[in-house]
Amino acid sequence: MLLSEPYYLFFFNLSVGIILGSIFYRADYCMAGMFRDAFLFRDYSLLRSLILLVVTAMSLFYIMRLSGLIRLYPPPTYSYPSLATIIGGFIFGVGMVLASGCVVGTLYKMAKGNLTNLIAFIGIIAGSLIYAESHMFWESLRTDFILTGNMFLSEDDFIIPLFIVFAASIFFLKWKRQGKWNLEAYATGYIQPWKAAIIIAVLNVFVYIFSGWPMGITTAYAKIGAYIENIFYPEHLQGLSYFSQNSVSINISGINISGGAGPRIDIITFTELALAVGIIAGSFITSLFLREFKIYGLPPKKQAFSAFLGGMLLAYGARIAGGCNLKFIVGALPLLSIQGVVFVSAMTIGAFSGAKIIKKLFL
C-alpha cells in the first residue's frame, strides 16, 4: 500500500483518474444514463455491462484477498447499513437522474464542454455544503438506527460469491450468443461498454490494493465546497462539525492516517480529490485528442433547473448515506457489503422515481 507515501499515493490516484476519465468518455459510461434508459425507455443494454463490472470486480477482489494483496478488510471507509443508507440512497437516485449524470458522469461530461453538467457540478458542491448544516441530525440517524450488526453478506465464506459468479456467467454466455454485448457505434475511438466495465473493475482492484480501499469520490466534492466556503465565511465553516470530523481514520504500523471534508490536505486529498482531478483531466485530454471538445450553449431553463436540483439532491443523498454509486456499486457490491446492497436498492427506487419526475415535469 501507498498510504504511508502520500505523494506517491496522490500521483497514483491522479493517474488512475486520468485513465478512468478517458475510459468513461470514450465509452460514454454513465451510470445515471443506464438507470434512466432502463426506466424511461426499457433499454437494458448498458445495465448488462454494469452487472459485468460488479461480477468481475467481485472475482478479482476475492482472488486478491486470498493472495494477501488486500491488507485492509473490511475497508475503513465502509460501515454498517442504517436508516440513513436507505434515505440517502433514495435521494441520490432521484438526483442522479434529474442531473443527467452521477458524481463521475458529471465530471467527464463537464470536462468535454457540457454546460449542463457544469451546472450539475455546481449543484453538487451546493448540496454538499447544505448537508454540512444538518450533519449532526443525520449522524445520529446513522448510529441510532443501524439495520444489522453485520457488514457483509459473506465474510470469509466464498460460497456466495462463487455462486453469484457462476450464475452470472450463464447469463453472460447467453447474452454473447444473442449478440447483446456489442453496441452499434460510429464515433471515433469508441470503447464498447463491456470492455470499459472490465477496465474499471481492474483499476478499482489496483486502487484497493495501493490506496487501502476501493474508489470513492463524493467527499472530494465536499472538500472543494469547504475550500470555497472558507474563503468567504471562515468563521461559519469552523463552527460546522462536519468539516472538523474525519470520514476515515486508521492506524497502520503506528502511523495515524486520517482525512475528511475539511479544507485541509489529508488522505482525502491524496485519494478522492486526486481521482476527481484525474477524471476531469483524462476526459478533457481525450476530447481534445479526438477533436470533440466543444463548449455547448446553456441548456433551456427547465433542463438547467433539473441539472442543478439533481446535483444538489445527489450530493445531499450521498453525504447522508456516506457514499455514492461509485463507492457502493463498483466497490461495495462486489464485496457483498450489506451497506452497498441497501444503498443500491434504495438508489434504484430513487432512480425510478426520478425518471417519472423527469417524464412528467421536464420532458
Short description:
The chain has 363 residues and is an all-alpha fold.
Would you give an account of this structure?
With 363 residues, the protein is mostly helical. It contains 15 helices and two strands. It is globular. The mean pLDDT is 94.
Features:
67% helix; two-stranded antiparallel sheet; 3% strand; single chain; 363 residues; 15 helices; mainly alpha
- Total separate domains: 1
What would the principal axes of the Cα set say about the shape?
Answer: globular
Name the strands of the widest sheet in spatial order: 1-2
Name the helicity range.
55-70%
Tell me the β content.
under 5%
Distance between the termini: 48 Å
Count of DSSP helices?
15
Rounded radius of gyration (Å):
19 Å
SSE order: HHHHHHHHHHHEEHHHH
- Main beta sheet: 2 strands, antiparallel
How much is the average pLDDT? 94
Unreliably modeled segments: none
In terms of structural class, how would the helical and strand content be classed? Answer: mainly alpha
- The tally of beta strands, per DSSP, is 2
